Amino acid sequence: MKGNTRTNMNRIQKLLAEWRAAQPIKPDLQHRMDQSFMIDFNYNSNHLEGNTLTYGQTRLLLLFGKIKGEALMRDCEEMKAHNVGLEMMKIEALDRERPLSESFIRELNSTILAGDFFKVSSDGQSKYKIHTGVYKTRPNSVITPSGEMFDYASPEETPSMMGDLVRWYNDAEQAARLTPVELAALFHYRYIRIHPFEDGNGRIARLLVNYILLRHGYPMIVILNSDRRHYLDVLGQCDDAVGREPYKGADATLEQIKPFVDYIAEYVVRKIQFALDTLAEINAGFHNDFVETDNKEVKGEDASKVSNMDYRLIEELKFKPSITAAELAKMLNKSEITIKRYLKNLQKTGKLERIGSDKTGTWKVIL
């Protein structure tokens, strides 16, 4: 999405008005949309943090409580627990009488991590216990791509910084001077610069972005695992503008994190547009099921229709035209040959065009 932040927000308001005018959605369709979001959000948010379950395994686990193939027990436990946290967040967000609280954030952390557990140290020589639902007792930091140590708030600073963050959020929500998208982006950034827990901070940040969006009547978003590098790069740009000291991050301004505001705004536009397009396709009889299922290829007289896999590919290609077939295959849990077959069919039916060479070109969605 191009243009300045205000232009982006105006576009969101236009799309949001269309989305709200399309309400109410039929209960069975709403259920399928909710179910699709549940799978996509849990899969992507956990994969951003290293979970190894495939999309298909995630779907089986969350819908039917079983798993196919090999999987780490801890990954299964955390995926199920993260879904419980998602439902907790939705209930809390829709209770407009209850302000955001530190106790809820701590409870959410304990829930998504499925209780205390042991973690292996970075050197692989020892184990230490992760205490969930309580603020960190040891420093946490990351190594930047340039090899520098980037420190988050110290354990001593964390309680006061989190108290300030929650008070700021509740005051800002009441003042209503920021749009929900601006509020969500700024909260995410300030929260992640504190990094209050020993584990689960990224997942909590993305849950709370959706807490803010849902609370203000916006569709919830899924930050894609395939977009991880871009996601981290944008946050890194903001770090450079804000400064490396933790107290500066915890007090970052909207102007300093403009790249991240625009990043979140892109996802909100993408989500609302996808929802509107989905309704249009269903109303036209082209989109059979919002939840992805297998073996839905487009053939013969059905070439004008859009299958579930086609729809997912089209949305990914709209969002990231330079994405490769190999990246799509990994993200959608399909073979590269299968993805290439779908792409070739979309080109044959006039829905997709390749601009440039196979190696360096991009995709143009015609549909």
Coarse morphology: globular
CATH superfamily of the largest domain: Fido-like domain
Question: At the first level of CATH, what is the class of the largest domain?
Answer: Mainly Alpha
Return Rg in Å: 21 Å
Question: What is the CATH architecture annotation of the largest domain?
Answer: Orthogonal Bundle
Mean pLDDT figure: 87
Strand order of the largest sheet: 1-2
Total count of strands? 6
Strand share of the residues? 5-15%
Head-to-tail CA distance between termini: 18 Å
Structural write-up:
The protein has about 375 residues and is mostly helical. It folds into two domains: about 5-275, Fido-like domain (Fic-like fold), CATH 1.10.3290; about 295-365, Winged helix-like DNA-binding domain superfamily/Winged helix DNA-binding domain (Arc Repressor Mutant, subunit A, Orthogonal Bundle), CATH 1.10.10. Helices cover about 55% and strands about 5% of the residues. It is built from 14 helices and six strands. It has helices at about 5-20, 25-45, 55-65, 75-95, 100-110, 160-175, 180-195, 200-215, 230-240, 245-250, 260-285, 310-320, 325-330, 335-350, and strands spanning about 115-120, 125-130, 140-145, 150, 350-355, 360-365. The strands form three sheets. The protein has a two-stranded antiparallel sheet. A hairpin with a 5-residue loop joins strand 3 (about 140-145) and strand 4. Helix 1 (about 5-20) packs parallel to helix 11 (about 260-285), helix 2 (about 25-45) crosses helix 4 (about 75-95) and helix 7 crosses helix 11. It is globular. The model is unreliable at about 285-305 (pLDDT under 50).
